[in-house]
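Subject: tRNA-2-methylthio-N(6)-dimethylallyladenosine synthase

B.,
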Amino acid sequence: MSTTLPSPVTVPPTAPEPAPGVRPETAPARTYLVKTLGCQMNVHDSEHMAGMLEQAGYVAADSRHAAAEDVDVIVINTCAVRENAADKLYGNLGRLAGAKRARPGMQIAVGGCLAQKDRAGIVERAPWVDVVFGTHNLDVLPALLERARHNERAEVEIAESLQVFPSTLPTRRESVYAGWVSISVGCNNTCTFCIVPHLRGKERDRRPGEILAEVEALVAQGAIEVTLLGQNVNSYGVEFGDRGAFAKLLRAAGAVEGLERLRFTSPHPAAFTDDVIEAMAATATVMPQLHMPLQSGSDRMLRAMRRSYRAERFLGILDRVRAAMPEAAITTDVIVGFPGETEEDFAQTLRVVEASRFASAFTFQYSPRPGTPAADLPDQLPKAVVQERYERLAALQERISLEENQRQVGRVIEVLLAEGEGRKDGATARLSGRAADNRLVHLALPDGLAAPDAPRPGDLVSVSVTHGAPHHLVADSALVPGGAFAVRRTRAGDAWAARQAGDGEHAHGAADAACGTPGPAGPVSLGLPTIGRVAPVV
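Prediction pasted inline below.
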């Protein structure tokens, strides 16, 4: 692929050549909006897309223009895991067709998993799309936008394997108080229902020094919470030949000075080992929270899904986690209606869900994904059967979630305040955030407490839980005479306030110290095998 693109603006001969995709300073800045469909990995990929656009001279649309989708460039980062993913994409594209007609020069780009899967078919179905790029070549987005503008035609570029590790790309982080850090990309599992390995490739692990450098940089920029990301985080180290690598990484990352909360998602039960539980329990900054995908409680269905664990092993993991961390909140994923699932299979799932006492669960009706082995299995279940089972499972989990949250009433918890977590906060005069166990908490402020004395996103507030609902906790203890309420103002809150005031930059890109993650000065050892010098992240 050529990396030198013609520019729509004439550059004087004495001026240096702009980087690929970077518009000359004489051109007006174009605005952009990135819309994310899908998982946490997609959210983090969207941060990279935004970072690359800003490095190329684009500016993020303000909230008013973003809400109206009145921007120069809209990027839709797609998901392909569920059947309705395509419906969501083409619904968005259909609506944007009119917006594009009304705004000459507007561009629409589609990236992510569905783009990797459908490729040029997206342009065939929605010919007003300007750019399609895949999961393996996020870095080409600015260049493709410029090429499409110059050539006045759609540009489709899908790489078959990873070209640039995403974490080395510029990053515009949505939050200054909490951040994602990818430790690996891709997946080596062969679950029959999942298309992710096909779209994201085999697992590739980052070097531990690069990961720790990124965590340290995030903390230096104000973050107090970090979430380690991977399709299967606890298989980290497969390229190093060290099965204990993830536990070592948890301990090392958890020891970064200034970090207060460390999380990770998502592990796989088959590879979840006791050393990880020990590292979680022994590392104070690792939060008492675990997302452990069950998928089915039937051993027969687990075999059909190629999930290399069985229900009793799964329950055993939960028992050991709770023995080490009694207050841990465990969440899960469950698929209903997998091909061939009988009423007895479904009853086994209900039994395991009841025994697991999940704080919450993401429940899905199975939908065939073309390109997966399960799509061709016999005994696909009727929609009515799947729907009825789904409703029974949802009702069971709703009851369990309510009971588990009601058990929290009276506990004093520390809440990391967030932006935008509570949709009704304006009406209820509450603030919202996450407890250590990741439960969503809506909390009241004492009467008369207002800015600038009120806590800010990124600050930590200690309150007592006064009510438990299925999907959240309420902590109105500040309204009770003598009730628990204490604010700990943090570096993260300071960083949030500075961003609001425009006093400084947050992590926009890799071009300078404020806009990327500097590499370590030298190799960082976790006791893992090393392959040459640890490469810096630039």
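The two ends are 22 Å apart (CA to CA).

T.
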